Amino acid sequence: MVVKVEVFTSPSCPYCPMAIELVNEVKKDMGDQLEVEKIDISINQEKAVEYGLMAVPAIALNGVVKFVGAPSKEELVAAIKEETG
């Protein structure tokens, strides 16, 4: 099962590059199991509003926000594995 990972960022956010780097690193490890989309909330505010986001970075898995702030790699991998069953 492919897990859709959405990373919500903002250009002014000092922590967002770390979140993107983390997701890219996990994508390298998990390959085709992940579909990654990076969403800049300054461009796509509708999606952030739809998810009720008040802060970035935020990471959603399969349409559900799982993290606000950058999680550790272990936390992210564990959450992805939960999604895949």
From TrEMBL:
Keywords on record: Electron transport, Transport
Chain segments annotated as coiled-coil in the UniProt record: none
Pfam families assigned: Thioredoxin_3 (PF13192)
Gene Ontology MF terms in the entry: electron transfer activity; protein-disulfide reductase activity
InterPro entries per UniProt: GLR_AS, Thio_glut, Thioredoxin-like_fold, Thioredoxin-like_sf, Thioredoxin_domain
A GO biological-process term: cell redox homeostasis
Family affiliation: Belongs to the glutaredoxin family.
PANTHER family reported in the protein's UniProt record: GLUTAREDOXIN-LIKE PROTEIN, GLUTAREDOXIN-RELATED
Listed name of the protein: Putative Thioredoxin
